[in-house]
Amino acid sequence: MEHSINNFARYLGTEKNLSIHTQRNYLADIRQFQAFALKRGITAVDEIGRDVIGAFMTGLYMKKVKKVTISRKLSSLRSFFRYLMREGRIGFNPAQLVQTPKAEKHLPAYLSVDEVFSLLDQQIVGVPAFPRDRAILETLYSTGMRVGELADLNVGDADLESSLVKVRGKGKKERIVPLGRKAVQALGAYLDERFSARTDREAPLFVNARNGRLTTRSIARVVDAYVKAVGIRKKISPHALRHSFATHMMDAGSDLRSIQELLGHESLSTTQKYTAMSMAKLIEVYDKSHPRARKER
């Protein structure tokens, strides 16, 4: 099994051309399953059947692991065994026979328009990183990009004259996303301070004090710090700004297809959750305003 996992790791990086973050998630899931199988005395991939994977999934349920995480782990295993079938190592995909958990229905966290404005309009004096941090917040909300996509940006990806940014999404798929006026201003101010001449287009756009590329974790800490500073009492991640972007676009009348393109979703069904979010807001307004509302006021 160890040899097969190592080969699969190379396959993810070369043939599938997945991001480092996605590769790491795939392999972490498969390594967890490997540890489970080894405890049962299983060391070869052709010894694994549906019963072994089913027992692994049951253990995850008993540990109260979220269904979305269990689904991701099952998807990783399906990809692994699909690769082994292609390589002729096994004759069938045992993970394909295991049922995917029903997705939990919940609406992603997001900020109201007023909350976003209060977050983005902060003016903090005496903090050297403030121009960078403001550019990070404005870019996340202006584009709706994923935090990993933001971390991967290079200087040459941001075309401030055209108000556009090139984003490398999942599977290294590129898309061009508009930049709002405030984001352009924030990025311009940050770049003017950081560079005397913007010659190195391949340099990372957002860097730490040592000029190293900011990690997704560092960006999450930036967002968390400014959320706390403005007094928003919600647990807000960079992804919540992506949800806020999409929800506010939907509330303003944007069509699903446009939002799908901006977010880089492969499937329209992934984007449709924002319809539910907008409907939830409409229901809340109805319940607060209508004389014969659905709930007592």
Describe the structure.
The chain is 56% helix and 4% strand. It folds into two domains: 2-97, DNA polymerase, domain 1 (Orthogonal Bundle); 113-287, Intergrase catalytic core (hpI Integrase, Chain A, Orthogonal Bundle). A three-stranded antiparallel sheet has the order 1-2-3, with no helix packed on it. The radius of gyration is 22 Å and the shape is globular. A hairpin with a 5-residue loop joins strand 2 (164-168) and strand 3. The mean pLDDT is 86. The protein is mostly helical and 297 residues long. It contains 13 helices and three strands. It has helices at residues 2-14, 20-39, 50-62, 67-86, 113-120, 130-143, 147-151, 181-194, 216-230, 238-251, 256-263, 268-271, 273-289, and strands spanning 158-159, 164-168, 174-178.
| Distance between the first and last residues' Cα | 60 Å
Radius of gyration (CA) equals 22 Å
Q: What are the low-pLDDT stretches, counting only 5+ consecutive residues below 50? A: none
* Secondary structural class: mainly alpha
Assigned CATH class of the largest domain: Mainly Alpha
Largest beta sheet: strand ordering: 1-2-3
Q: Could you state the CATH homologous superfamily of the largest domain? A: Intergrase catalytic core
Tell me the number of helical segments per DSSP (H or I, 4 or more residues long): 13
Could you name the CATH topology of the largest domain? hpI Integrase, Chain A
Roughly what is the average pLDDT, rounded to an integer? 86
| Overall strand count | 3
Helicity, in percent?
A: 55-70%
The ordered string of helix (H) and strand (E) elements is: HHHHHHHEEEHHHHHH
Number of domains: 2
